[in-house]
Amino acid sequence: MRLSLLSRLGLRGVTVIGLVFLYVPLVVVVILAFNKADSTLWPPTGWTLDWWRQAWHTSAPKNAFVQSVEIASAATAIALVLGTLAAFAMSRFSFFGKSAISYLLVLPIALPGIVTAVALKNTFLRRIDLGFVSFKVGFGVHSIIIAHSTFCIVVTYNNVVARLRRSSPNLLEASADLGAHGLRTFWSVTFPLVRSALVAGGILAFALSFDEIVVTSFTAGPGDQTLPQWILNSFGRSKGVPVTNVMATVVMALSIPLAWLAQRLSDSTESIAGRR
Amino acid sequence: MDVVTVGGGGAPARVSRFFRRHRKASLFATLGGPVAWMLLVYIGSLVVLVAAAFFKIDSNSKVTTDFTTANVKAAFTTGSFVDAIVRSVLIALAVTAVCFAIALPMAFYIAKVAKPRWRRSLIVAVLLPLWAGYLVKGYAWKSIFTPDAGKFAAHKGGGFLEATLGWTPGFGKLAIVITLAYLWLPYMVLPIYAGLERLPPSYLDAAGDLGARPFRTFRSVIMPILVPSIAAGSIFTFSLSLGDYITPRIISGGKEQMIGNLIDQLQQQNQALSAALTLWPIAIIIVYLLGMSRLHAFESV
To answer: How many angstroms away from the CA of B134 is the closest CA of chain A?
Structure first.
């Protein structure tokens, strides 16, 4: 399609404005982390590293960071196992109710977070009687992990199922024809095929859990504090907001290499990035 | 290698032979765990939620068989609840419209106008802000929107917008729409971009050869092909905005109430009514998903 110079420039202008829109808040956060004044007013009054020193010497944000990493790791591990198993079953077998199960896996991210949060909270606080066993989940690190795993499964499932759909079933037949039994085929053929999809899905699931606040605040126990919970509390205070900007800057800096790796490894961006 | 492994082989070979012969067993072994988890944890919880809306709960917080529609009736007829849901739907639609208006030209420029070697970097640049924290971005916008408190206030000057443009939307509905549109914009750019990537360039050439000007090509060739992608993107922007209660809380400090804020606040005071209120977003999202699946939204992602 031949576009006039004017419409090309117009499209480029909107794209530049869109990118500026996307990055201005992030740049503002980083700049305010070095702002001398304990305020979010613009422009900054001067420059200081005091907030970085303060963040380094305060234990609450560091503890919250560690707790978030622990929860995200556990939820990612569970999501990787369950999502991968589901992806293999859904791509290998056809059976009654298959489409219902694919909706079931997507439901936790299609429904608003508050619905999932209230539903899980209502269940975790009750004694559940299944007839042969009766138990109460309660609230703590374990309930956050259970809740996060539930909406992380869809992420790992999506990544692995996309990879399996693209890989040819002939590879498995060839492996069997060469005399390899099922487990041998899995280790030598199937696993190397899905390995990068597992890493990409794992990173995305980790990021989703690490940043989650709605479901977390409904399923956390009174003594728990994830990093988003700490951020929500400390932004609400009137003093020391720049320390929160410091933590935000640190997390952004840490997540850029992870984001880059996930983009490289996942199927969706391979096709999206024009490598056809 | 020994090809005849029918009767021989070690334990691994025997295990894999068992699963090859018993397809039901291997289906159960792979799908049993994930489906059991989703049914027990998620569907189970949703059932408890709906039950909590319809059945009276006794003093031991056990759901009784005492059926009541009082909570649901209150949730669907009380004026303030209906106002909040109308406001939430309008905000979610406005966010979707804003995202669409920015995402369409951006995705078109990146996919069809920008030099091919720039495409990957540009699309990564659009996706990267998704990795910065949700709360951090919310509070960043609040600081950006801060209006000038006036000469006599303790704090002089305003936020980034007031200082650079001399204008700010303040902390009202417009500010909420801008913040939500900012948060979910990449989810709209991505599917439209993917849809344009799949569009064969020969279609555009053919339209041009038949005498269509760019605008005509856009309306008659590109837009019809993009409908499923736009529908898919709108599922994210609409659904994520509809249930959001943190952003209105951060931006407006609790003045602008969306449906999520009411559900959140009622959790402490009246759990049954709060549960009944969640039926609103559940119903709206199901209707929206059904509508979008008619536009083939689920086949494009």
So the answer is: 7
Q: Determine whether B198 is exposed, middle or buried from the number of CB atoms within 10 Å of its CB (0-12, 13-18, 19+).
A: middle
Report the distance separating Cα B237 and Cα B239, nearest Å: 6
Find residues 68-107 of chain A whose CB sits inside 8 Å of chain B. 81-83, 85-86, 88-90, 92-93, 95, 101, 104-105, 107
Alpha helices per DSSP H over A93-112: 98-110
- What is the reported pLDDT for A239? 76
**Nearest-angstrom CA–CA distance, A153 and A142:** 17
Same domain assignment for residues B49 and B165: no
Q: Does residue B60 surpass a pLDDT of 70?
A: no
Q: Hey, are the CB atoms on A218 and B267 less than 8 Å from each other?
A: yes
pLDDT in tens, B187-240: 999 999 989 988 888 888 898 889 888 888 889 999 999 999 999 899 989 999
Whether B197 and B284 share a structural domain:
yes
Mutation pick from A81, A118, A239 vs chain B, by most beta carbons of B within 10 Å, is A118
Phi-psi region of B9 (alpha: psi -120 to 50; beta: other; left: phi over 0): left
Neighbouring C-alpha atoms within 13 Å toward the C-beta of A87: 27
Q: Among B20, B164, B244, whose Cβ lies nearest the Cβ of A182?
A: B20
Kindly state the percentage of chain B with pLDDT values over 90: 48
The residue range of the domain holding B30 is 11-68
| pLDDT tens readout for residues B9-29 | 577 677 767 776 777 888 888
The pLDDT of residue B281 is: 94
Nearest to B130 by CA among A2, A23, A20: A23
Q: Which among A266, A121, A32 has a CA at the least distance from the CA of B61?
A: A121
Tracing tokens 């499964």 back to the chain, one arrives at A153
Q: pTM of the entire structure?
A: 0.87
Return the exposure string of B165-186: e unless at least 16 CB atoms fall within 10 Å of the residue's CB, then b: eeebbebebebbbbbbbbbbbb
Q: Is residue B156 less than 8 Å (CB to CB) from chain A?
A: yes
CB contact under 8 A, B156 and A83: no
Q: B47 and B95 in one domain? A: no
Please give the pLDDT value at position A131: 78
What pLDDT was estimated at residue A276? Answer: 30
Best A29, A84, A109, A115 member to test B by mutation, with max B CBs in 10 Å, is: A115
B174 and B228 in a single domain? The answer is: yes
- Quote the minimal CA–CA distance from B199 to chain A in Å: 12
What are the DSSP calls for A207-246, one per residue?
Answer: HHHHH--HHHHHH--TT---HHHHHHHHHHSSS-HHHHHH
DSSP characters over A6-51 = HHHHHHHHHHHHHHHHHHHHHHHHHHHTTBSSSS--SS---B-SHH
pLDDT-flagged residues of chain A (< 70): 1, 267-276
The answer to whether residues A151 and A248 touch, using CB atoms and an 8 Å cutoff, is no
Q: Are residues B130 and B34 in the same domain?
A: no
- The CATH T-level fold of domain A59-272 is MetI-like fold (1.10.3720)
